[in-house]
Amino acid sequence: MTGIIFGSLARIADLEDVPFDVDRIDKKMWETGDYALGKVTGTPTRLYKIEKCAGDMIRVFPGDRVVGALGERTATLEGVGSWKDVECGRMHALTSAGIFGAFTSIAPYLPNPLSLDYCGHITRDGRKVRMNDFALTSAETKFSVPTILLVGTSMSAGKTTTGKLVCKVLSSAGLKVIGAKLTGAGRYRDVASFGRAGAAEIYDFVDVGLPSTVVPEDVYREAIRPLIRFIETRKPDFLVAEAGASPLEPYNGATMIDELRDNICCTILCASDPYAVVGVQKAFDLKPDLVAGPATNTSAAIDLVTKLTGVRAINVIDRDASQVMREFLEKKLTISLSSAHASA
User: Cα–Cα distance between 120 and 67 in angstroms, integer?
Assistant: First the structure.
């Protein structure tokens, strides 16, 4: 079909190249990960944008048709919604990547979200086309890649910015780094920025058929294990793994940490403020090796983090951050980043 905008959740599929049909399906048959077509409605606001498969953003207007996937989102700072809450075919784009559902709670500071009318499911030969149809697979193998874990006290806590710096420091020393976002709500731009920062390869949960990781724990484990095993076959020196949101939110962050636990060699906690560091430490029994994010914006904030937690803190947007991060990683990982391959 022509004249259709494909949200970035469709980047793993062949929908732009291979013909498909659009058929309305009874809601009783809907499932997370189904590809669907929506027609843009309402009065455009700044949220009337779609992230395309390559990661670039495009404005959309009433009458435009967008391909996305049914999913759920539970963002503490922005909005909560699910495809299960769609009524009479009236939907929202829960993220710019094209998670389709209906908001049930949205932050008052946000304008009206991108509204859509359900046109139908993407089908071929009378069968729904689903994200799972294009999910990455891998043979059974033991995961052994040293992993630098990025977790946050909430969304927008600086995880991606910190991950970019880690990828840059390690890759500039000649190490093969894979960057991955293993929990969150599907948007390509976060993990894509790891690639621009130097990661040799990038992956996320979309690659294994999940629009977001707001799914039952067993579903998440079944999906993420093939991705972790696949990363093992790529033989990186390090995996830089970001957990979207915080471990306490329903994105399976705790489950992700459990899956990676034996290989985590460094944990960086990105925090919105110094007291949030204490909250996550106590609630999740998590002792980070380093604190970053807005909690480190000033010297006073860094001093308070150290006083409250005893953990070192780094302001990753400081002009000297690369050198400071390099020194921290050299000590923590016991490698020389000036001759990394010889010392790793």
Answer: 10
Task: Compute how many other C-beta atoms are within 10 angstroms of the C-beta atom of residue 80.
Answer: 19
Residue 76 has a pLDDT of: 80
CA distance 243 to 149: 8
pLDDT at 341: 47
Distance CA 246, CA 153 (A): 5
| Cα–Cα distance, 48 to 46 (Å, whole number) | 5
3-state secondary structure of 259: helix
Rounded Cα distance between 92 and 38, Å, is 9
Whether 1 contacts 124, CB under 8 Å: no
- pLDDT recorded at residue 244: 72
pLDDT value at position 63?
96
Range list of β-strands (E), the chain:
4-6, 21-23, 35-41, 49-51, 57-59, 65-70, 72-74, 79-82, 90-93, 99-106, 115-124, 127-128, 147-152, 177-183, 201-204, 238-243, 264-270, 290-292
Q: Let me know if residue 129 belongs to a domain.
A: yes
Strand partners, 99: 69
- Contact call for residues 311 and 290 (beta carbons, < 8 A): yes
Of 101, 134, 167, which marks where a domain is finished? 134
Q: Which residues contact 298 (CB under 8 A, 6 or more apart)?
A: 315
| DSSP output for 33-51 | TBEEEEEEES---TT-EEE
pTM: 0.91
Same domain, 204 and 105: no
- Asked whether residue 47 is domain-assigned, the answer is yes
| Alpha carbon separation from 199 to 184, 185, 196, 224 (Å, rounded) | 20, 21, 7, 20
- Domain boundaries, position 122: 4-134
User: d(Cα 185, Cα 4) in Å, to the nearest integer?
Assistant: 22
C-alpha of 200 from chain center: 18
Distance CA 67, CA 123 (A): 12
Using 70 as the pLDDT threshold, list the residues of the chain that sit under it.
1-2, 154-156, 245-247, 283-284, 339-344
